[in-house]
Amino acid sequence: MLNIRLLAGVEGLVFGVSMFFFMLGANGGPEGLRSRQMYMQEARRYHGSQSDHLDEMHSEYTDLVGFLTVEGTNIDYPVMRDRTDSNGSYYYLTHNFRGDMDRSGCPFIRLSANLNDDIVEVFAHNNSNGTMFAELSKFEDEEFFHEHGQIVLDTTEGVRSYEVISVIDVEVPSEEFTYFGWSNFDSADSESEFLRQIYTASKVEGTGDYTTGRQYLLLVTCEYTHVNGRRVVIAVRTP
Q1: Enclosing domain of residue 68
Q2: Three-class DSSP labels, the chain
Q3: Of 51, 54, 86, 152, most Cβ neighbours within 10 A?
Q4: What's the N-to-C CA distance of the chain in angstroms?
Q5: Would residue 214 be called left, alpha or beta, if left means φ above 0 and alpha means ψ between -120 and 50 degrees?
Q6: How far apart are CA 172 and CA 175, in angstroms?
Q7: Which residues are CB-contacts of 161 (< 8 A; sequence separation ≥ 6)?
Q8: What are the tens digits of pLDDT across the range 19-76?
Q9: How many beta carbons lie within 10 A of that of residue 88, not counting itself?
């Protein structure tokens, strides 16, 4: 039986939505893993360091944004642009990148997101079979955090590299972290406050670098020690 947990969105923020994240039950066993492996093998046949590989895949799967790889984890998945921004009914929570019904879902950004925004959020399930964003929990180990901080988003527009600077577990809505749903800072002060919040709430002590004028990647999934929790790994874009 699939255990579905409804996570309400952040009320009063710039992007007021409600989001559904699933904790896998039936799809968490060997059959579910075989299904994941089959379609990921198909995805990886396109994936290479040359952008034309992604162009080829994009011509077949037009929602494709790129491939996300997180060092030291099994996170090596296509990222899709969702088909709706409406009130939590996100397509790729219940479909894989081919558009097939799949309770494991697929990592995605919102329909309205722009990769050049100050903040780009990528969402995926925290699956009990260890797939999608389940292994973000590894960043709560201090040694792992400091040894495996590299994230690569390989897109049709080029390769984007990021360095992990914080990992937080928060209730939603949260006074600890109030930037869910933001895409761009409205001032240098708002970016400084963003940095203060992520360093203060971080499960592991980060760099504490308060340099502003940068771009951030947020990997967002469910977190189950809170009633309505999120685990967020925050990374800053590097040259």
Answers
A1: 3-238
A2: CCEEEEECCCCCCCCCCCEEEEECCHHHCHHHHHHHHHHHHHHHCCCCCCHHHHHHHHHHCCCEEEEEEECCCCCEEEEEECCCCCCCCCHHHCECCCCCECCCCCCEECCCCCCCCCEEEEECCECCCCCECHHHHHHHCHHHHHHCCEEEEEECCEEEEEEEEEEEEEECCCCCCCCCCCCCCCCHHHHHHHHHHHHHHCCCCCCCCCCCCCCEEEEEEEECCCCCEEEEEEEEEEC
A3: 54
A4: 45
A5: beta
A6: 9
A7: 150, 151, 152, 153, 237, 238, 239
A8: 444 444 334 444 445 545 655 566 666 555 445 578 888 888 899 999 999 999 999 9
A9: 16
Maximum Cα–Cα distance across the chain: 49
**What average pLDDT does the segment 137-153 reach?**
94
Of 206, 174, 212, which is closest to residue 193 (Cα–Cα)?
212
Ramachandran region of residue 206, left (φ > 0), alpha (ψ -120 to 50) or beta? beta
Segment 153-178 mean pLDDT:
92
pLDDT digits (tens, 9 = 90+) for 68-102: 999 999 999 999 999 876 656 789 999 999 899 99
| Count of C-beta atoms within a 10 Å radius of residue 117 | 16
Residues in contact with 113: Cβ distance below 8 Å, sequence separation at least 6, in sequence order: 81, 120, 121, 183
Number of domains in the chain: 1
Q: Is 215 exposed, middle or buried (0-12, 13-18, 19+ CB in 10 A)?
A: middle
Q: What is the CATH number of the domain that holds 57?
A: 2.40.260.10
